Amino acid sequence: xxxxxxxxxxxxxxxxxxxxxxxxxxxxxxxxxxxxxxxxxxxxxxxxxxxxxxxxxxxxxxxxxxxxxxxxxxxxxxxxxxxxxxxxxxxxxxxxxxxxxxxxxxxxxxxxxxxxxxxxxxxxxxxxxxxxxxxxxxxxxxxxxxxxxxxxxxxxxxxxxxxxxxxxxxxxxxxxxxxxxxxxxxxxxxxxxxxxxxxxxxxxxxxxxxxxxxxxxxxxxxxxxxxxxxxxxxxxxxxxxxxxxxxxxxxxxxxxxxx
Length: 259
Description:
Structural class: alpha+beta
Number of strands: 12
Oligomer: single chain
Distance between the termini: 22 Å
Shape: elongated
Strand order of the largest sheet: 1-2-3-9-10-11-12
Helix content: 25-40%
Order of helices and strands: HEEEHEEHEHEEHHEHEEE
Number of helices: 7
């Protein structure tokens, strides 16, 4: 796994715990991340039947902004006062996420008081106190979103797009990353014989928001498309980046399931 220090270790521990919850008491999940060969083994009745590697699909160029984002209690969501309804916000990639969390409730309260439902900033226009407040917070766009929970949902500029109504783009992007930037994850397992070989992936900033949105627990559960497995790999796990999203497990022998 790429070394992001304590964050990497926490993701490894999360992956181990998720697999333990998935398999239950009948399967032992052995944490071997400190060793060079691979990150974990799966054992049944004391016998190893699977080995695997863990990876965080994280774009280093976006890491500093996402690092602040991931520290929030509810990632990409800011709770608002009762009755303020849902809002959608698009932030600049270099925005101060912590400052945004502190200040956006005040901004939205002011917008409601002034009956302003939308602000779209283009460079230095428009010029007014609310638009200037948005620029101060790194907001490119903010608007009310109809009926729904009292919260502001935000995304980074450049991470948006048309929200898919299926999981095909998730499958395709996972395949692409395993073929290229993360090919070492499965290649390092090739030299060790094992009935099963697993790749456990944690979604990071390589996945744009519009791609992962179909995994949201607020959306209807969608069919899981097939995926092309790298040579020798029998299982691919794709864990959602936050607790409000489903995770997917592909298996070449057992079918595909959410976990």
